[in-house]
Specification:
CATH class: Alpha Beta
Number of strands: 6
Helix content: 25-40%
Largest sheet: 4 strands, parallel
CATH superfamily: Uracil-DNA glycosylase-like domain
CATH architecture: 3-Layer(aba) Sandwich
Mean pLDDT: 96
Number of helices: 9
Distance between the termini: 36 Å
Number of domains: 1
CATH topology: Uracil-DNA Glycosylase, subunit E
Length: about 220
């Protein structure tokens, strides 16, 4: 099956593209995009892989669904295009970076700048129907993104996985913790952050400390 995904990932995921569940998923997504407003736009569904080649992956951040508001989702978890109001979770991510690393709160909510440095910004579900959170869950995306996490875990070493919230932590079952560095905390959404489960996790400085230990280039957050 022909899937429009970056070359560096094609050979890694070829087996998945041939599986029956993936064929069913493609048919479901095509039908949804034809009959409903869905996000992100079709050309951005695999944006996380366009910006971050398999061989460049140093950090993986796992989100849940794409944003389902108008113009928000851009194919990278937690990220929005320039000019779009920052959603609450992204605001809390930037606030944590501010206190953790002393980096000023940025104007741009477009995290492609992270992706280009080797941060895979992976949502567990890559599409969503407008204004209907979770509408494309349990259709096959989760199996596909589990396979991606497994491939990274098996074929690479010393990758930092940032698992924020219960959903991401469950996805972490696919990670070999002996080979990789896994950091967990609450989700940056206000519900979790305001209860004290997010702020102060220092995941951004800890990620760079680990990369330094391994003689890898740190991330300019």
């Amino acid at each position: 099956m022909q899937v429009n995904i970056a070359e560096s990932w094609k050979h890694i995921l070829l087996e998945e593209f041939e599986k029956p569940y993936f064929h069913e998923l493609v048919n479901f997504v095509k039908s949804e995009y034809q009959n409903h407003t869905c996000y992100p736009k079709g050309s951005d569904i695999f944006a996380a892989f366009d910006y971050c080649a398999f061989e460049d992956v140093k950090v993986v951040i796992i989100g849940q669904d794409p944003y389902h508001g108008v113009g928000q989702a851009n194919g990278l978890c937690f990220s929005v295009h320039d000019g779009i109001t920052h959603p609450p979770s992204l605001i809390n991510i930037f606030k944590e970076i501010e206190t953790d690393l002393g980096i000023s709160y940025p104007k741009s909510g477009d995290l492609s700048r992270w992706a280009k440095q080797g941060v895979l910004l992976l949502n567990a579900t890559l599409t969503v129907r407008a204004h209907e959170a979770g509408s494309h869950q349990k259709k096959g995306w989760e199996q596909f993104t589990d396979a991606i996490i497994s491939k990274i875990s098996e074929e690479k070493s010393d990758v930092v996985f940032l698992l924020w919230g219960g959903y991401a932590k469950k996805k972490g079952a696919k990670i070999d913790k002996k080979k990789h560095h896994v950091l967990t905390s609450g989700h940056p959404s206000p519900l979790s952050a305001n209860r004290g489960y997010w702020f102060g996790n220092k995941h951004f400085s800890q990620t760079n400390d680990f990369l330094k230990q391994k003689d890898l280039t740190t991330i300019n957050w």
